[in-house]
Design goal:
Keywords: Endonuclease, Hydrolase, Nuclease
Order of helices and strands: HHHH
InterPro entries: Restrct_endonuc-II-like
Distance between the termini: 39 Å
Protein name: DNA mismatch endonuclease Vsr
Shape: globular
Organism: Nocardioides scoriae
Radius of gyration: 17 Å
GO molecular function: endonuclease activity
Length: about 110
């Protein structure tokens, strides 16, 4: 079960200014998750910029575009986050078997 969502707090001007200067990519939690997924033999790349908000409409828009949404909070352990991502991946992509060299993907 995923960790509960943290309480939302309206940022003050000082915090908002500080947050605007922080890295939005290759953060310590992202690198830890990437390393965990790499250890499991999974690779990924960021292909779209996703808004940093948590609106349900964001999920709906991503689902409509064919994406699966997995929310991972920076305080979650990389192993747990890796389980969430791997589970979503395994549900979406069939396992490759010795009798199915295409991994369940259509040939052509």
């Amino acid at each position: 079960m995923p960790a509960p969502e943290p309480d939302r707090v309206e940022p003050g001007a000082a915090l908002s200014s500080k947050m605007s200067t922080l890295a939005r990519r290759d953060t310590r939690p992202e690198i830890a998750l990437r390393s965990e997924l790499h250890r499991r033999g999974l690779r990924y790349r960021v292909q779209v910029t996703v808004p940093g908000n948590r609106r349900s409409s964001t999920d709906e828009e991503l689902h409509a575009a064919g994406w699966d949404v997995v929310r991972v909070w920076e305080h979650e352990l990389p192993e747990h986050a890796g389980d969430l991502v791997e589970d979503a991946y395994r549900q979406r992509v069939p396992s490759r078997s010795p009798t199915d060299p295409g991994g369940g993907h259509p040939q052509g």
